[in-house]
Amino acid sequence: MAEGWDEDGLRAVRGALHGPDGTALLAALRHGPVNEVLQLAGDGVAGAAALGLPGAVRMAATFLGALRERGFGGDEELADLLGVSVGHAVTPVPRPLAVDLEMLAMLLEGDPAESGGRLDLSTGECWPVFTDELETGFEEAEAPDRWLSVPTLGPRYGYRDMELFIEGLDDAVLADRLRTAVRGRGAFRRFKDVLARDELAWRRFHRFSEERQLGRARAWLAEEGYRPRLPYRAVGQGGHPNRARSVP
Fold first, then answer.
1. Domain for residue 31, yes or no?
2. What is residue 240's DSSP assignment?
């Protein structure tokens, strides 16, 4: 199994997504296989390309090719956005929303008995369902267009993630052990128990699973007519934004 991202590398990518521009992100992406962080870093690459940063268009093209080849849920939506950001496509893209895609994925992927929630369309904040009784901010009756209900997708998607991960393994022995683990009730626990004995495989599955979850969140959001807002903006002298390529 090829070496993937380590924790320091992923930490650098995540930190760069919250930086002042995309320069740090483009540098961080050189330290690991980009095909493992397409959904995680795709909006940042699109933002950097829209600003015309050196190397951003080439990175966007790399992301585009990898997304088209991979074809996970949400990859097509992200590829369309990247195409628009580099000026190679005029595909209409959904409305931008300042939503944390990872937080949205947590709501979608959680336990149906405990998770799900609401998305605040005015701020992009994600609220778990249990906060309805604890917070006073849910004035849905007074502002019904402000909130978007977030469902839970159920365990079948997570189970499919395990199956696809097993199919992609080069280690035939580990693959056989995992196929045995996912049969019958308790499949998730047994799968994780087997992976826990192999640190590298565990890291790779976690990265694979997160990409799948982020893609599902992106696809769900697109169905509702929205997409994550691109990070970064160009700032010139005096702190005034410079003109960047418009992403509708």
1. yes
2. P
**CA 75-13-115 angle, 5° bins:** 60
Tell which residue, 117, 97, 98, has the closest CA to residue 109.
117
What's the 3-state SS for 148-184? EEECCCCHHHHHHHHHHHHHCCCCHHHHHHHHHHCCC
Confidence of residue 238 (pLDDT cuts 50, 70, 90): very low
Interval 20-74: pLDDT, tens: 889 999 999 999 999 999 999 999 999 999 999 999 999 999 999 999 999 999 9
Identify whether residues 14 and 81 lie together within a single domain.
yes
Separation of alpha carbons 104 and 116, rounded Å: 9
- Helix (H/G/I), strand (E/B), else coil: 95: strand
As to burial, measured by CB atoms within 10 angstroms (0-12 exposed, 13-18 middle, 19+ buried), residue 112 is exposed
Task: Using the 3D structure, point to which of 52, 73, 93 is the last residue of a domain.
Answer: 93
What band does 241 get if pLDDT is binned at 50, 70 and 90? very low
Burial of 179 (0-12, 13-18, 19+ CB in 10 A): middle
Range of the domain at 87: 7-93
In the predicted model, is pLDDT for residue 210 greater than 90? Answer: yes
